[in-house]
Write a structure and sequence with these properties.
This protein is of the alpha+beta class. The chain folds into 2 domains: 5-87 and 257-279, Immunoglobulin-like (Sandwich); 97-202 and 218-255, Roll (C8orf32 fold), CATH 3.10.620. It has 6 helices and 16 strands. It has helices at 97-100, 103-108, 129-132, 138-152, 166-172, 177-190; strands at residues 5-31, 38-48, 54-57, 63-69, 73-86, 154-155, 174-175, 195-202, 213-216, 218-225, 229-233, 238-239, 244-250, 259-265, 268-270, 274-279. Strands 1, 2, 3, 4, 5, 9, 14, 15 and 16 form a 9-stranded antiparallel β-sheet that branches. A 5-stranded antiparallel β-sheet has the order 12-11-10-8-13, covered by helices on one side. A hairpin with a 4-residue loop joins β11 and β12. α4 crosses α6 and α5 (166-172) packs across α6 (177-190). The protein starts with a strand and ends with a strand.
Amino acid sequence: MSERLGMSIRHHTGFNYDGLAKASYNEARMTPRSLSTQLVQSSKIAVRPVVPVSTHTDYFGTVVTAFDIQETHPRLEVEAVSQVESWAATLEQPLGWSDLRSQRLTDRYSEFLLPTHRTALVGTVKDEIAEWQRLADVHQCAEAASEFVRREVSYVPGATTVSATAQEAWDRRKGVCQDITHVTIGLLRAMGVPARYVSGYLFPNLEPEVDDVVEGESHAWVEYYSGTWTGIDPTNGVRETSRHIIVGHGRDYDDVAPLKGIYQGAASTQLGVVVEIRRTR
């Protein structure tokens, strides 16, 4: 087993209103869960204004904190604090192409094979697919797709909005991790490889020291099905590591947005997002 990293994550976000919001109904997806590559030791979410919250697990296995605010409020703040131990998965021998394309698997993972509004791609971006499909196995195919997108789509903060699609990012040849992930997912699905969006965090230091504290942000990467779900990070050109902390999975960003909801009242602007990660062991 790879080195285990202990990490503490603080994620603060929310909205300011131009006046007062009269009521709001919200869902936060900011809580990591214990999986085959990570163990959540503690987690809590604080909401301001202080209101009761409820917790459930959604269809894709992501922990959801739901709450509504019925009093007038000028600001909504949500802060999640988690302690997680993480380690990298071992790369398993993949299924062959004939097994991946069997009716049993295509039926089971159909929602991760069909394009969504966010991941749909058209035109020349798909021209590389035929060559990749001749590669020996799905791991090599995913690596080729990841490297292609990383080479062709530059990481440029602020180049796109949170509502951007894979096609928009491809046409501009720039975007952020969300966009690079959407393009990669679109290509993998077009080749018949089930692929899903992963939302979480990445400790950016390659060799983090204990008590190192870094300012980060929410991160996104890809998992593709090879017999087991296998992670790859096209933005950074690496496989999923012990520095990756998983919060949720979905078809695309819309399934795992950290905070979303509806409200009645004046226009809103998002608070600056703050993510701090500290290595604890």
